[in-house]
Specification:
Length: 160
């Protein structure tokens, strides 16, 4: 098991946001990631995930998202972060069930840094997270992403 060192600029443990609706999976992945030195935030559905993402994005080092998350799935999170927000610095690990090579390629083309089969287990997910957390993200670009994503999610006022 490898331990991820504290981020160099803040001397804090790296922070992961885990989005999955299965409480058992969340518990197992939280434990595995904590053993690898991560502080773990989590959400159980897409709406809660967006709220936590916007609140914590400036301090996140990696996003781990279930491809089949209810409310806003992994596909949607990738599009929201990569396309709408323009964020490329936040690593994203997608958890998938029986993803075909075509699905894996599609996820990669949308900006997933890694795709891990859920059946591979928590240790494999933690290793994938370690592998994609190579350097600290650019906080300036992430701040712009928070603003972009927030603007997309705020309802537009309609004149009466």
């Amino acid at each position: 098991m490898s331990a991820t060192p504290p981020t160099p600029t803040t001397n804090r443990r790296p922070r992961a946001l885990l989005l999955d609706d299965d409480a058992v999976v969340v518990r197992l992945l939280r434990t595995a990631l904590q053993c690898h030195g991560y502080e773990v935030l989590s959400a159980g559905d897409g709406a809660e995930g967006v709220a936590v993402l916007l609140d914590a994005l400036l301090d996140l080092d990696v996003l781990v998202v279930d491809l089949d998350l209810p409310g806003r799935d992994g596909w949607s999170f990738l599009r929201l972060i990569r396309d709408a927000g323009g964020e490329r610095d936040l690593p994203v690990v997608v958890l998938a069930t029986a993803a075909s090579p075509a699905v894996r390629a599609q996820l990669r083309s949308l900006g997933a840094d890694a795709v891990v089969e859920r059946s591979a287990g928590p240790a494999a997910v933690a290793r994938a997270v370690d592998a994609v957390v190579a350097h600290p993200a650019s906080r300036t670009r992430i701040r712009a992403t928070v603003d972009s994503i927030s603007a997309l999610l705020v309802p537009v006022a309609v004149a009466a």
